[in-house]
Design brief:
Blueprint (H helix, E strand, L loop, with lengths): L8 E3 L3 H4 L7 E6 L2 E6 L5 E3 L9 H11 L5 H22 L9 H34 L9 H16 L2 H10 L8 H22 L6 E5 L8 E2 L4 E2 L15 E6 L2 E5 L11 E2 L2 H14 L3 E4 L2 H10 L1
Parallel strand pairs: 5-10
Antiparallel strand pairs: 1-4, 2-3, 2-11, 5-9, 6-11, 7-8, 8-9
């Protein structure tokens, strides 16, 4: 059987998500103070973005050590599953079983996995979330009260915050290898484990946390960016991690969601938003963005430049 062709252009922002801001597949992008139209396939993308790094035995031990004693047994199974899926292809390429050393077909299969396995994983999750996001855009919130559907949705939401190029590059800039353990090499795995843990925390508190759906009927559309999920309690001017977490996720130009905090409310409510609220949330997206901000309106992006 022929091996599936490698997907080399890999989106770190879900392409189908960005299509909600496009017209005939064209979206307006703000980058480096320049605004230009682009096909959605040309933004939020990088060649081999999800290519796995070859892990050392120390890296694998380090991932286990980071979460040892802090995870439920089911969480440990999740950790081991991600280690197997995203950790061992690169390790096996460098440490093949004796009977497969030099086997060209075996090496080709591993190289294909190294490039594509995480890309395929994101694609499978996105396919599962497509009807969920469509329902939320219709302002239907049943996913939040459905025990079976809520866990993967909250995992997906947290992963959209952690999968981005901006987060990856900040991790690379702020960490260094310690005693042979590299967070950067392990990030393909760590981001998934962190997303599972964060999503589970949201799930366990969901009866105390409101899911807010914001309805934008103003002339100023919601924008999004290459960091599409923003913690409303984060401070872009501070390197200190925020103690509170209220993820904001624009769903399209007229709808956005927030998972509110338990006691310290974010200040928004479900229903219609004012122009000033929309502009404030758009500024949060711009401030959190790494390089690119997206809209269906060139004028809105021009206003953002003028007000910055």
């Amino acid at each position: 059987m022929n091996m599936k062709k490698d997907t080399r252009r890999q989106h770190h922002v879900w392409r189908s998500y960005l299509e909600a801001w496009s017209t005939n597949q064209t979206i307006f992008c703000l980058m480096d103070s320049l605004i230009f139209p682009s096909n959605v396939s040309g933004v939020g993308v990088e060649r081999d973005f999800y290519k796995l790094s070859p892990l050392t035995s120390t890296d694998i031990q380090g991932i286990r050590w980071l979460f040892e004693g802090k995870m439920h047994p089911s969480g440990k199974r999740v950790r081991e599953n991600f280690l197997t899926a995203f950790g061992f292809p690169g390790w096996l390429l460098s440490n093949p079983p004796p009977h497969l050393a030099g086997n060209a077909k075996y090496e080709a299969q591993l190289r294909h996995q190294i490039i594509n396995v995480e890309e395929d994983w994101h694609a499978a999750l996105e396919n599962k979330m497509t009807p969920v996001i469509a329902a939320l855009r219709r302002r239907e919130t049943s996913v939040y009260t459905d025990d079976k559907e809520c866990i993967p949705f909250l995992h997906f939401l947290c992963l959209q915050m952690l999968r981005t190029k901006g987060v990856r590059d900040k991790i690379a800039a702020r960490t260094s290898e310690m005693n042979g353990f590299s967070i950067v090499r392990c990030w393909n795995i760590l981001r998934h484990i962190f997303a599972v843990n964060a999503g589970l925390s949201l799930y366990l508190e969901r009866k105390k946390r409101s899911l807010l759906l914001l309805e934008n009927n103003t002339d100023v559309p919601f924008i999004t960016g290459d960091q599409p999920v923003v913690n409303l309690f984060s401070n872009s001017a501070s390197d200190k991690p925020p103690e509170l977490f209220a993820p904001y996720y624009p769903l399209n130009p007229s709808t956005a969601l927030i998972i509110d905090e338990v006691e310290h409310r974010c200040g928004y409510t479900s229903g219609s938003t004012s122009v000033e609220q929309v502009r404030t949330l758009n500024r949060r997206i711009r401030e959190a963005s790494y390089r690119q901000v997206f809209s269906n309106s060139k004028e809105v992006l021009q206003d953002i430049i003028a007000s910055s």
